[in-house]
């Protein structure tokens, strides 16, 4: 992980957005809120059908990138990370191997502590909170209003979905997915490609490749009175 975040400030190249779905739409709003120049969007679903999407040019499908010089544009991965699909990660790795760069992006309404380490292509969406000591690996998304508390270590290609809460010192391995509104209590480990279902309350480590859903909430006499 690089020491210096490759933010929109350190790399103000014009941007090409990859993917015109829901995540792409939210990212376009983020890019505009940062005042970055957006050259257009590439999306195979729109290529040859429409010339304009959300007020920016449709550059074509995947082949549109063949005409771009990796030294002169930054890419933003607008493909959302959904459970069971590696498409977002595949696109990042393939284009990174071709020399394209992905700036890390932080929405102006997010709070990110000054010492947080953001690797390439990290996306911190509106209203998110990322506290001191956190490290976030390449191509990961901290989605709208999610909270990542102190000293969490998050691997590559992780999605912390809207409103999810990682308490302090949680370790999330690459490719894991933390569903919307889920809570992971402090100090736990989520293994590679682990999936936490929306709304779950996680109170034990979750091994890689496993899914957890539901909440362990149980009513019982209090021992704190
Ligand atoms: C900006 C954005 O939109 S980002 C996207 C954010 N999205 C999310 O966070 C969604 C996360 N995904 C989930 O929570 C999914 O429901 C998963 C991955 C946990 C399970 O998905 P699937 O395997 O397709 O589950 P499916 O819908 O078939 O449901 C299977 C059963 O599990 C239950 N179930 C599914 N998800 C949950 C959940 N999160 N919590 C509790 N129970 C659940 C269903 O009710 C169903 O129960 P039933 O068999 O008694 O009817």
Automatic annotation (TrEMBL):
Domain PglD N-terminal: 15-81
Keywords from the UniProt entry: Acyltransferase, Lipid A biosynthesis, Lipid biosynthesis, Lipid metabolism, Repeat, Transferase
SUPFAM superfamilies: Trimeric LpxA-like enzymes (SSF51161)
Keyword Repeat: yes
InterPro entries, sorted: AcTrfase_PglD-like, Hexapep, Hexapep_transf_CS, PglD_N, Trans_hexapeptide_repeat, Trimer_LpxA-like_sf
Cited CDD domains: LbH_AT_putative
Family listed: Belongs to the transferase hexapeptide repeat family.
Protein's name in the database: Acetyltransferase
Organism: Pseudomonas soli
Biological classification of the source: Bacteria, Pseudomonadati, Pseudomonadota, Gammaproteobacteria, Pseudomonadales
């Amino acid at each position: 992980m690089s020491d210096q975040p490759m933010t929109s400030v350190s790399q103000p190249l014009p941007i090409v957005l990859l993917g015109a779905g829901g995540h792409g739409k939210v990212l376009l709003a983020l890019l505009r809120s940062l005042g970055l120049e957006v050259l257009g969007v590439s999306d195979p679903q729109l290529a040859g059908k429409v010339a304009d999407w959300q007020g920016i040019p449709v550059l074509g499908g995947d082949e549109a990138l063949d005409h771009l010089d990796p030294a002169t544009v930054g890419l933003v991965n607008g493909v959302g990370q959904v459970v069971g699909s590696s498409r977002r990660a595949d696109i990042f790795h393939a284009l990174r191997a071709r020399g394209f760069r992905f700036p890390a992006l932080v929405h102006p309404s997010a709070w990110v502590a000054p010492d947080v380490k953001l690797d390439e292509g990290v996306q911190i969406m509106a209203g998110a909170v990322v506290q001191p000591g956190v490290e976030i690996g390449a191509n990961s998304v901290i989605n709208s209003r999610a909270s990542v508390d102190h000293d969490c270590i998050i691997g590559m290609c992780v999605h912390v979905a809207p409103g999810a809460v990682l308490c302090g010192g949680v370790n999330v391995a690459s490719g894991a997915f933390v569903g919307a509104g889920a809570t992971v209590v402090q100090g736990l480990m989520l293994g590679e490609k682990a999936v936490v279902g929306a709304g779950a309350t996680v109170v034990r480590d979750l091994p890689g490749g496993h899914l957890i859903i539901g909440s362990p909430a149980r009513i019982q006499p209090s021992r704190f009175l």
